[in-house]
Amino acid sequence: MSRAAITYNNVLRELPYFKLNEIAKNLRLNIISVQGEDVLISKRRKAGVLRPYSPGLTLGNEQELMKFFEAKLKPELTYAEINENITSYKEKKVISNQGEMLDNKSKKHPLELIILRDLVISYAEDVAFQLFFAERDEAILSPSTAFTGFNPRLDILVAAGEISAAKGNLKTTGTFDVPVDETDTDAYLKLVDFLSSAHPLMRKGECLLYAADKPLKAALKAYTNIVRYHQNPTMEDMLNKLRSDVELPNLQVLRDPILGTGDRLSLMVPGNLDLGVNNEGDAGFVQVRNPYKDPNIVQYWIQAAYDTRVNDVHPKFFMMNEQVNTGVNLAGDY
Asked: Above 90 in pLDDT, residue 282?
């Protein structure tokens, strides 16, 4: 049989946890329900068609006017399986099910209600901390191989030449290091140089900068050196000055632990990152099988399909640097 996860009152103390929907909202990620495959096609229009005319001019030279860029979103199936033996709790009075004791007749797991809820939470946390780092590999059973995240998608586009210095959407910055002395302002100036390199049309509207703590904290210390005689700036002070220095008043700096550690910077227009799911409700539904192989074992099963997509990497919409981030897994309590 299968049962939907239901919330019950219990008095177990819980530790805080990361919520996937809140993370998606904070990082301005689109969550899209996809059945099968969703293909987004962006048109590239050629310029340089203007010519001087003169009588007798030879006409009819063949040339293309447009190209197309495809970005696919095809969620791939993931799962989580928990097998619990109800006899593990025989000598314990549990408190999840209103103090219900182990029932050897019903074979109902005494912690079932908590397991249903926690499995959904843990599943969502695993997805959240792999959004930017996972690489799908069905031969390895791990959260980091369950689907393909945003950073590997970008790395594929770099290898294919869609993101490059020549195209104007890849800017070399080097690493952002903490200043070595009070005269070292490199980290802040590197950040200014990176943002100043953005395409003029992207700079006109709202821009989102995805950055881990390392480059921003190094830039803050470097900026502190610049204003050390008359100010002890906060991070917000530095970001406000940065917006002024690079003439990006609508710059939004997005930070979150799921971005990992490292010096990667990604600048883009809002709405450029999609998280595809095959059905938004799947990850909140848990199948319960009892009896399983052993009559005392209860199996809890959850599954959903995920994929990520960067909608467009044209320099009018996107720019990144050459640095790499490493994921930090804070999912769960142990």
From this structure: no
Question: Is residue 62 domain-resident?
Answer: no
Whether the CB-CB separation of 173 and 321 falls below 8 Å is answered with: yes
Give the residue numbers spanning the domain of 253: 2-43+67-326
Q: 34-48, 70-84, 283-297: lowest mean pLDDT where?
A: 283-297
Q: Does residue 334 fall inside a structural domain?
A: no
CA distance 181 to 186: 11
Pair 87, 298: CB distance under 8 Å: no
Q: C-alpha distances in angstroms, 157 versus 4, 131, 200, 238, 272?
A: 40, 17, 22, 32, 15
Q: Which amino acid is at 332?
A: G
Distances, alpha carbon 76 to alpha carbons 90, 138, 258, 303, in Å: 39, 10, 21, 10
57 lies in a domain?
no
- The candidate with the shortest Cα–Cα distance to 170, out of 180, 179, 160, is 160
Between the CA of residue 139 and those of 52, 136, 155, 234, what are the distances in Å?
Answer: 61, 9, 21, 47
Mean pLDDT calculated for residue range 24-51: 90
What span, in angstroms and rounded, lies between the C-alpha atoms of 104 and 266? 56
pLDDT at residue 137 greater than cutoff 90: yes
Instruction: Tell me whether residue 269 is in a domain.
Output: yes
Select the highest-mean-pLDDT range: 69-83, 189-203, 297-311: 189-203
Helix 213-226 and helix 186-196, axial crossing angle in degrees, nearest 10:
110
Confidence of residue 185 (pLDDT cuts 50, 70, 90): very high
